[in-house]
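Notes to self after the call with IL:
- keep both proteins in one doc
- input above output, always
- annotate only the second one for now

Protein 1:
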Amino acid sequence: MKRWLAILLLAPALATAGSLKPLAAADVPALLAPPAHGERLIALWALDCAYCEPNLQALARLQQAHPEAIELVTVATDDMTHEAAIEKRLAAAGMTAWPARAYADATPERLNYLLDPEWGGETPRVLVIRADGSRHGYSGELTTKQLQALTPNP
């Protein structure tokens, strides 16, 4: 009985473990497609980024407050070969509940350009894609004003 209880308690953790998926150039159009409703926030971050974890956590809180209106996806700009380190950092930040991707292309600069031609590659970066097809990007640590702009109107 104790064994089954332990398995049941570990099942959610195991379900999210290893959920990191590669992001190649062919995957970018689907990621950038407008959502059916609300907005998709694509949180671009890197292992060596000091402001990325607080940004990820702020976006997670925003999504949790508006689960029907906001879809959150994290994208590590680090290569997928760093999978263990990326997953460890996401777990430490409490970000395992959201879809996670990591670069898996021989030319990361190409992925940067495909994601946002206006972006210079700095992290953190948040791409906002709305159901109406409009897009906006924010670079750097998110301010209170920027987070308010991301908050859906009731």
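Protein 2 (the one to annotate):
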Amino acid sequence: MPPSSAPLPLLLPAALRPRRVLVVGGGYSGNRFAAALSAQAVPVITTHRRPADANAPLTWLPFDSEAGIVPGRTDLEGFSHVLTTVPPGRDGRDPVLDLLGPLLRSLPLQWLGVLSTTGVYGDTAGAWVDETAPLQPSLERSRARVASEAGWRALGLPLQIFRLPAIYGPGRSPFASLRSGRSRLIHKPGQVFSRIHVDDIVGALLHNLALPAEQRPPVLNVSDNRPCPSSETLGYAAHLIGHPLPPVASYDAIADTMSPMARSFWSENRRVGNLLLCQKLEYRLRYPSYREGYRACLQEENGTPEPD
């Protein structure tokens, strides 16, 4: 699904407009961010492992850590801002940190953004976490994120780490799985999930770029206002498209049939707080809950414009 043509509400002030931006990882969130910058006439380049679509409007650099294809010093000249969206690999190492970190350290960067995960907080049995909560990751991939965050800090660059919960948006909504019969309505007592619409990730990034450097917090949770059970969100999605829900299933009864990755998501239970972002930094969420977000997803997936 291509990035939305709907304008984001925040325009970067001229004095803080990046000179040139590199987005490492031209995936779902990275491409959405790059498109938002491009719409404001900010020069932006994304990285890809293989040649980009010839019709893609954005320019790109090749970056494939497994094949050893890495941008060189001359490729990175002139960048003032960098965002990396690439997670650690299966070996637990952050390929961007390992392969590009030394080069980035030699550049006169004004901002380095790293997308991380709220999984670094571990399981809190549904309790709220904010940026001051201890890091107690229980999953291997979250422990790798903690190590990655520490490695980026050690470079001494003007770093901001953005910790994200479950990401959704157009093309990553429940509607297709409901229609195809792949959805599962799972009940696990007390279980909640936090989430964030991709355009609020983009909005939070732009909001921070519009702040003076000294006002940008080093770590920031980016989450909406309504952690809730997945059964609640699936029920609302079914209501929006007039589709029946699948039969409810107890988590304990079906856990053995789930993939290891799916079970890992259900093994942790926490509510992610956003007071630093939304109160202290005064960012206004475009989609405060899944309700507004799902309606926007459905409109974009159906090709209808989102109302102002």
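Annotation: DSSP finds eleven helices and 13 strands in the chain. Residues 1-7 have pLDDT under 50 and may be disordered.
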